[in-house]
Amino acid sequence: MMKLYGVLVLFVTFSVASGLRCYICVTSDPNGCTNDLTCPDGLDRCASVMMDGLVTKSCVPSATCIDPMNCCDKDLCNSAVPTGPGVTLLLLSSALMMLFI
């Protein structure tokens, strides 16, 4: 039983020490980002932002996570293409329409 606890402690320690991995790129192809990086100390979020037709993905400090940037804190979680407010508004308006139909 003690060996099991030792293995669990070792696993948890290793997973915390390995750091966050994020996709990093600047591209016009939303699905073209395949490079990833283990984020250095102090950069604790993965980020995606789409502006002027370019998708930028990188490691960032949590303090810089403001609109229009999408941030997350799991390994390679910034793989999805960030959606703009248009999609959210479309879904919200569709849901409201369903309430009144």
UniProtKB/TrEMBL annotation:
The keyword Signal appears for this protein:
yes
Report the superkingdom from the record: Eukaryota
Q: Which InterPro entries match?
A: Snake_toxin-like_sf
Asked whether the keyword Signal is assigned, the reply is: yes
UniProt keywords (A-Z) are:
Signal
Signal peptide feature range: 1-19
Full protein name: UPAR/Ly6 domain-containing protein
Q: Which organism is it from?
A: Poecilia mexicana
User: The organism's lineage?
Assistant: Eukaryota, Metazoa, Chordata, Craniata, Vertebrata
